[in-house]
Amino acid sequence: MKNVNYSLLELATLCKNKTAADAIVRATNGAQHIDQLGYTRIWLAEHHNMEHIASSATSVLIGHIAGKTKNIRVGSGGIMLPNHAPLVIAEQFGTLESMYPGRIDLGTGKSTGDRSNYGNGVKKKQSQYGILFQR
After folding, report:
1. Most exposed of 52, 80, 85, 98 (fewest Cβ within 10 Å)?
2. Does the model's pTM come out above 0.90?
3. Can you spell out the DSSP letters for the chain?
4. How far does CA 33 lie from the centroid of its chain?
5. What pLDDT score does 34 carry?
6. Which of 66, 49, 54 is CA-nearest to residue 23?
7. Per-residue pLDDT tens for 63-115?
């Protein structure tokens, strides 16, 4: 029988009467537990403007969890590039990979949700191909 690789998708959800800090501690403890069980990877989801999810700063949370685990791969599932400067994301994940070699995964997406309130500080223009970010 083949070995099966297991992964987990983590949202860092807030429980009733708990804080974002509590959710991050719980997510970290869960990552440590599945690391000990031999899971291959934990994916951290990026969600914004959701009061019960504490994973909006995905790369920060990835760095924290990678620093508290030993073997498991830690990745984004995924970073929605229209919400970020792609160069910054590349630099963040390159730095994470330097700190935790062979353990960092970058998953990206384009987001299908309403982004009308995102990226207000980023110069952009609409084209036939979507939103183009400018310097």
Report:
1. 98
2. no
3. ------EEEE--BPPTT--HHHHHHHHHHHHHHHHHHT-SEEEE----S-TTB--SSHHHHHHHHHHH-SS-EEEES-EEGGGS-HHHHHHHHHHHHHHSTT-EE--EE---S--TTS-TTS-EEEETTEEEE--
4. 19
5. 98
6. 54
7. 999 999 999 999 998 898 888 899 999 999 999 999 999 999 999 988 765 55
Number of residues written out for the chain = 135
Assess contact for 42 and 34: CB atoms under 8 A.
yes
- Confirm if 31 and 21 have CB atoms less than 8 A apart: no
Query: Among residues 81, 49, 39, 44, which one has the least CA distance to residue 64?
Result: 44
* Among 54, 43, 37, CA closest to 9: 43
The C-alpha atoms of residue 91 and residue 89 are separated, in whole angstroms, by 5
Query: Could you read off the pLDDT of 26-58 as tens digits, one per residue?
Result: 999 999 999 999 999 999 998 887 888 988 899
